[in-house]
Amino acid sequence: MKTTLKGILISDFTINNLKGYLSNSNSEPRIESILAPFNQVQQVLLDTQLECWAAKPDFAIIWCLPERIIPSFGKGSIETVLQETDEFIDLLKPLHQRVKFTLIASFAIDPGRFNGLTALKSKTGIENILMQMNLRMIEKLNESQGFYLLDSQRWIASSGTLAFQPKLWYLSKNPFHNSVFEKAAEEIQSSVRGILGLSKKMIIVDLDDTLWGGILGDIGWENLILGGHDALGEAYVDFQRELKILADKGILIAIVSKNEEKTALAAIEKHPEMILRKKNIAAWRINWEDKAKNITELVKELRLGLDSVVFIDDNPVERARVSESLPDIFVPEMPADKLFYPAFLRSLNCFNKPFISQEDRNRNLLYAEEKNRTENRNSFQSLDEWLSGIGIKIKAERVSKKNSQRVTQLLNKTNQLNLRTRRMTEQEILDWDASSDNFMWAFSTSDRFGDAGLTGIISISVKGETAFIADFILSCRVIGRKTEETMLGFANLQAIKNKCLFLKAEYLPTDKNNPCFLFFKGSGMRRKDNTFTWDCTAEFKIPPYIHFTYEV
Amino acid sequence: MDQGKDKVEKIIFAAIDDYNDFHPEEQKLEKNTGTVLFSRAGFTKSGKLDSIGLVNLLVLIEEKMKTVFGNAFMLDIQQLIQEKEKYLKDLGTLLDYLEIMSRKIENNT
For A10-25, what is the mean pLDDT? Predict the structure, then answer.
């Protein structure tokens, strides 16, 4: 079943059409829009008793016209305009008490308006002032949690000179052509998905005529169309560059191609103009098998869900095959003209995320390390023997402003080893942890193969003589390295410290978190239905070969 | 139906497709010349368009008419809404009005 979120639309113009586009979208999550009263932005922001708040929206969308919400815009001095902008921002700030997050459309003006040489003139040019207003919003709202600015100029620019529709404005106080609302709805959907951790996590690409031009097996890597003084060659390099940008944002890059593996890997490593090298690629299946079968295996190997994958292939037959046999995978249509490949990749909005952590930047490398780890593991007789030799270090630290961004990201996107699948904003996490009976810790793992970074979360809520596990979350990248046991052992010590007799975990099943159930079932805890209990008087042993530290 | 009317009907129906894209199921318009556009006291058939809906639909129709009949085609939407009993009772009356307008444009070119 699709998740539904309620969003309140607050605007000083008729925004009904945006509501329609959001409601009719088929993408996950469903957005049910609530229209705040027309042109009563200040009243809606100040009066929590208004009927529009009764439905308890999950998030807010604020979209105002600068000339309406900032009275001196276009008339007054820059100082007055910025002072009024500050007042508007002050009105927005308390929103975090009513909604989980707020999306704000940046201020924009009609691109058809000709401002000529004065447009950007310091302090007086209308576009200069507009930029400063937007910058002021960015800077001031950056200090508060849960506010995200969306670039409305992009929606407007994509509609060209038709963006502002005078007939709609004068007859219904709606300034925008529908194409602007369509673009806005797409970006809002994408942003909500990103904030909820539902964005795509991996892009699988084909090789021949996708990553480079030509058929490798026929012409050899020396003759591939890639780079050089050639329009198509440059486009392929740019396409790879765009993939590298995604990789640096934490999107896994994988290859599924019908080729000889040895030849293809040699091309990747040897071609002087390749942007993507083996170290940038998390996994690959290069063989002559069916691509749908290869993708299924590869996704399983990386412990991802099919719904977190995008498949890119120039061949429409392969795209149709994958799309029909694996409907959860997103298979976008490719432009017929290959010179448009880089622009096509740039336009995909399915990788949206609110911030990029250090772990994101290294994600492909982390998977490559995991590949080495698995190969090494296979040469040992027992798991314990292997684990004791790889120098596992686990560090626990209390959740704080220092790590809350990464904790929020992990909490909201982890599906498999997740006990209760609670989803919370950064502020909600910090507020929850601030309660005297609640405790949340983040776990980081490293070993001699590499540093996996912050990959685990455990939280307990103390009620009388019982410590309830509110969250038990572990990234699939470190499953099976005894981090799970270490987290439980640590939680037990904390329960004892809080004078508890029992540590309880209630498993809430979802479509995806069976691995968590299986872990608890084999953990040694006493089980009754979906509830697992540990008597705190007994020690929950942390494996002796794990070097565990707790940073106070 | 004559060719001119048929052409205008196709334009209206294409505009309705666009209109339905941003309206919930209960407000979607049927592509049928008998479709009542707005509700009137004393009439049993109720329409789905409020004043904003009427403006949206007419602007969509005008855009599409322009692409077929050229930029000289123009709707006085304010006037049409003021005389909605006459021109906007249902899709059929709107079709008749637009067909006359389009014929005038074609005769002038």
Answer: 96
Torsion angle, CA of A275/A280/A282/A286, rounded to 10 degrees? 30
* Predicted model pTM: 0.79
Give the CA dihedral A192, A194, A196, A202, nearest 10 degrees: 140
The residue whose two tokens read 């389009």 is B102
Which pLDDT does position A380 carry in this prediction? 74
The answer to whether residue B71 neighbours chain A at the CB level (below 8 Å) is no
Whether ipTM > 0.90 holds is yes
Element (H, E) at A203: strand A202-205
Task: Identify the residue whose tokens are 């990234």.
Answer: A475
Cross-chain residue pair B59–A14, CB shorter than 8 Å = no
CB-nearest partner of B77 from A16, A167, A174:
A167
pLDDT band of B19, cuts 50, 70, 90: very high
**Is the separation of the CB atoms in A4 and A57 below 8 Å?**
no
Question: In whole angstroms, what is the distance from residue A260 CA to residue A288 CA?
Answer: 8
pLDDT tens, position by position, A159-189: 888 899 999 999 999 999 999 999 999 999 9
Min distance B50 CA to chain A CA atoms (Å): 11
Distance of residue A168 Cα from the nearest chain B Cα, in angstroms: 7
